[in-house]
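TASK: fixed-backbone design
INPUT:
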């Protein structure tokens, strides 16, 4: 039996016009827009040159149809260390904070229409670091562990790196006349933000005191100095928000907010003052209130902490003197969106990674929720018609989500259910020794329950940064009366280390806006650069003007900075 419905009168005309409009603007057809780029076969890893990596990444993006993108603006959100396990657990925690069971909750980017997996290895390591991975994302070329904006080489060899500088999409955007900005909760000279503007083989060269004498002689400059030099003469990022005042101050300079702290620079150059002198109309800010008072029409440098910015839970406990990641994201978009030609912005949720290194899942998940809030702000302030938003991570961590907890079980709590599929709701699951265990734990790190030089045997509390194990764990502690949901509780770790390590599995990529349809399947991490560049006409045109494009207009040849 069929039922027909007839729509008459003006409503019928409206309905017909809507259908016609929908039919006249079909969604992108990736298959029809696919462009094939020939990539030579090479021996791995010996044949992987920078030019090969660049062309291979271009081929992945073009084959997925990135070339039909028409993005005016690009925002790249980088959740440092945000593994898929971290995403799943944070999703549940946020939902439970809202009063639901949590599993059905969605973080802000989980409604994006496009998803993919990104392979994160460095050229010299199965499990990567943030520098080499972010360099792949920002330059289109995979590189070694520790690399900042240079192709693969020796991380301690300055001379070798000088002719291996690779251009980032932030630098390309600046050259193409777009506005640019950087937002991070880390030191602004730390690995992820540094990889958008600096070029050194070793991520640790954040200030001149960390540069080896030979590197200075050979012509390498520290990361903080490179940032200041990149922003002179009206060029470079006009929005710089993060932490790390110590990298810009001299040893003779007291920190403005921590009088007992001094800068680390030995060259006598106060780089904050140099930025202010180069931007007499700009604003240097150190607090959330000062950032909120900034007029949004002049360059801004915000350094909100002597070191990394606070974890969000600690920021709130201290009266929110520092701005949140969402606050900084909103301020950046307000300013950059004034630029008629468009903008490119990088936003890093850096402390997700640091909390996992500390073995503290509460802060890792809480930082992920704060990161989601920042993405939501960007979604609300931009349009999918002209702004490509890409959310991803640089690498994963060893956080595990285990057992058979019942639906709605507190994600930071102990498993209530069973060790098998026939769990009993409400009852604690027990290990073979009759002891309860948590849903979340780490494969390694300082949460190991053995005794150390810093804390006795048993459950550990943040902060715990041991130098040596003095008493190996003998079985597991009884967690029956331990509040594992507490802010400072450190999840158990199998292998005792002074800090938890990264993981090597793939991470997620989520995208919306022009060109986002190209984000699908399994991608090499450096292909993300090529999706961004190919989907943004001004970036693509700038590369073609440099002779980097093939006959189809695809940038396939590695450009010189």
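OUTPUT:
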């Amino acid at each position: 039996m069929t039922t027909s419905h007839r729509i008459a009168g003006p409503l019928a005309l409206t309905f017909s016009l809507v259908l016609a409009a929908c039919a006249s603007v079909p969604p992108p057809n990736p298959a029809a827009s696919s462009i094939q780029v020939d990539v030579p076969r090479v021996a791995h890893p010996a044949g992987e040159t920078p030019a090969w990596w660049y062309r291979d990444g271009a081929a992945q993006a073009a084959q997925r149809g990135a070339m039909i993108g028409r993005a005016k603006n690009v925002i790249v959100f980088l959740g440092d260390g945000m593994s898929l396990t971290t995403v799943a657990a944070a999703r549940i925690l946020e939902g439970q904070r809202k009063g639901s069971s949590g599993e059905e909750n969605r973080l802000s980017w989980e409604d994006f229409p496009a998803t993919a997996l990104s392979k994160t290895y460095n050229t010299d390591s199965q499990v990567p670091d943030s520098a080499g991975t972010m360099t792949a994302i920002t330059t289109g070329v995979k590189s070694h562990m520790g690399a900042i904006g240079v192709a693969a080489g020796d991380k301690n060899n300055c001379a070798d790196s000088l002719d291996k500088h690779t251009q980032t999409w932030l630098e390309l955007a600046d050259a193409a006349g777009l506005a640019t900005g950087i937002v991070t909760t880390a030191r602004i000279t730390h690995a992820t933000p540094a990889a958008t503007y600096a070029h050194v083989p070793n991520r640790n060269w954040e200030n001149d005191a960390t540069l080896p004498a030979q590197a200075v002689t050979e012509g390498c400059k520290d990361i903080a100095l490179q940032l200041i030099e990149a922003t002179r003469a009206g060029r470079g990022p006009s929005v710089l928000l993060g932490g790390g005042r110590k990298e810009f101050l001299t040893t003779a300079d007291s920190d403005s907010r921590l009088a007992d702290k001094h800068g680390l620079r030995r060259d006598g150059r106060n780089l904050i003052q140099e930025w202010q002198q180069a931007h007499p109309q700009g604003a240097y800010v150190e607090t959330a209130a000062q950032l909120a008072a900034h007029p949004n029409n002049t360059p801004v440098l915000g350094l909100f902490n002597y070191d990394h910015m606070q974890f969000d839970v600690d920021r709130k406990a201290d009266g929110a003197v520092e701005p949140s990641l969402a606050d900084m994201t909103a301020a950046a978009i307000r300013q950059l969106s004034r630029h008629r030609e468009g903008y490119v912005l990088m936003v890093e949720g850096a402390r997700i990674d640091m909390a996992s290194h500390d073995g503290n899942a509460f802060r890792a998940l809480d930082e992920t929720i704060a990161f989601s809030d920042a993405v939501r702000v960007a979604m609300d302030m931009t349009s999918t018609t002209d702004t490509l938003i890409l959310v991803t991570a640089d690498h994963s961590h060893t956080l595990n989500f285990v057992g058979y907890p019942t639906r709605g079980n507190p994600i930071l709590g102990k498993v209530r259910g069973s060790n098998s599929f026939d769990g009993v709701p409400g009852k604690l699951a027990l290990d073979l020794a009759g002891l309860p265990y948590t849903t979340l734990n780490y494969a390694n790190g300082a949460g190991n329950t053995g005794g150390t030089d810093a804390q006795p045997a048993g459950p550990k509390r943040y902060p715990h940064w041991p130098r040596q194990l003095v008493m190996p764990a003998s079985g597991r502690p009884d967690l029956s009366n331990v509040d594992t949901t507490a802010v400072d509780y450190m999840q158990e770790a199998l292998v005792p280390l002074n800090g938890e390590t990264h993981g090597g599995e793939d991470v997620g990529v989520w995208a919306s806006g022009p060109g986002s349809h190209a984000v699908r399947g399994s991608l090499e991490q450096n292909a993300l650069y090529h999706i961004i560049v190919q989907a943004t006409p001004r970036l693509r045109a700038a590369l073609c003007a440099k002779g980097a494009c093939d006959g189809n207009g695809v940038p396939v040849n590695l450009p010189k900075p």
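COMMENT: The chain has a mean pLDDT of 94.
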